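From the shared-data thread, chain only:
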Amino acid sequence: MIISKIVYNRKFNLGNYETQDLTIEAQLNEKDNPLEVWTILADNTEMWHIDYMRKRNAESGGAAKSTPNVQSSPNQPPNSPPKASIDKIKQRFPSQYESELTFEQKGEYCIIKPKQFLGPIIFGDICGIIREIGGEYISAGKDSHSHWRVKA
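Structure, as tokens:
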């Protein structure tokens, strides 16, 4: 799958609410499963939204916890997710999350799974870190095998 276009519109309507529209166009390869691609895009959109709302609440003085200090690599060109080993990926997470997550190498990906229910604040923090290092959230729905994956 190659994401070819992303359009984001935010409208402030009369009253005290806003509307957000997100359009994503993706080109599928022959071996891509359209349903799986749809699920990945939907889950990642939700992950980005949770991270966006968490940051917005933190900036406006809301009760949301701010993202832990995550350092980016100065040698990595912008818009290029870093490739890293499991140890380097683990280092991106605050130490208090070590007991909440498992890290495993599967092929070219590092698979990160929660050990238990994380709650919205920790989930949002983890989603923000995953997004910064070029990863994505893979939902398994009610199957409870949801995880994040990062190219290692």
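Confidence is low (pLDDT under 50) at residues 63-83.
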